[in-house]
Amino acid sequence: MLATLVTCQGSTPREPGARMVITPTECFDTLGGGTFEWQTLEAARSFLSTGKPGFHLETFSLGGRSGQCCGGYVNVLLEVFPGSRVNVAVFGAGHVGGEIVSLCAPLPWQLYWFDSRLDVFTERCRHQPRLEYGTLDDAKTSVATLPPDTHTLVMTHDHDEDYALVAALILRDDIASIGLIGSESKWASFAGRLKRDGYSENRINRVRSPIGRIQNAKLQDKTPYAIALTAVSELLWLADMPPNQESRGLDPHMARTLFAKSPTTSS
């Protein structure tokens, strides 16, 4: 996040144009220090935790809200930059999962890779950029860590793990897409089980299975690399769709108020 001091009135620690870069754990440069800066950091990290890009305007009365003796007023524009526009989570580090992660490496995507067997991650993946990997201990916990608008692929070595992941994913309305590897019979079994467990038809229908199907044609080549190619091709189309966001950018009225020229007063 970039925090920019855009307007000042009265006595303030710094002047308009001062900037500070804020991450979830660090900050670079300063807007002047004190309680006001701590409140800016707190607000920034609260917005960062949502994982959604956008603009936010924070107003500080230094003598009131911030309790500082300088007593001026400042407006700080907080700009959340999303980093990689596309997030992809791969559950399963088997042959197909490994090929998918390798194929995604040149793409500007942020990857999250999970498997309940930590020893399956190779030395190569430890040096791949924009890749985070970790142990899949509990489906609900791992799914809860994903940022909004993540495209997910479920392909673990265990069908019970697959089911637990699908059941957790369909409950998150902000997941961009849910793909499950396997045959039509596997999905029919899963869909029936989900229905018996009380999940609604709308939630069940969010799952795409089998993955990588092009125009409903069946792929004859079932090698891991071929399956991965179709899965990544499918993701390219899905990722090209804009995320479902409630709003974009700074509210126009707020922007007009903020950047309108202040009237001059005569002494």
From TrEMBL:
<dbReference type="InterPro" id="IPR003777">
    <property type="entry name" value="XdhC_CoxI"/>
</dbReference>
<feature type="domain" description="XdhC Rossmann">
    <location>
        <begin position="88"/>
        <end position="235"/>
    </location>
</feature>
<dbReference type="InterPro" id="IPR014308">
    <property type="entry name" value="Xanthine_DH_XdhC"/>
</dbReference>
<dbReference type="InterPro" id="IPR052698">
    <property type="entry name" value="MoCofactor_Util/Proc"/>
</dbReference>
<feature type="domain" description="XdhC- CoxI">
    <location>
        <begin position="2"/>
        <end position="59"/>
    </location>
</feature>
<dbReference type="Pfam" id="PF02625">
    <property type="entry name" value="XdhC_CoxI"/>
</dbReference>
<dbReference type="InterPro" id="IPR027051">
    <property type="entry name" value="XdhC_Rossmann_dom"/>
</dbReference>
<dbReference type="Pfam" id="PF13478">
    <property type="entry name" value="XdhC_C"/>
</dbReference>
<protein>
    <submittedName>
        <fullName>Molybdenum cofactor sulfurylase</fullName>
    </submittedName>
</protein>
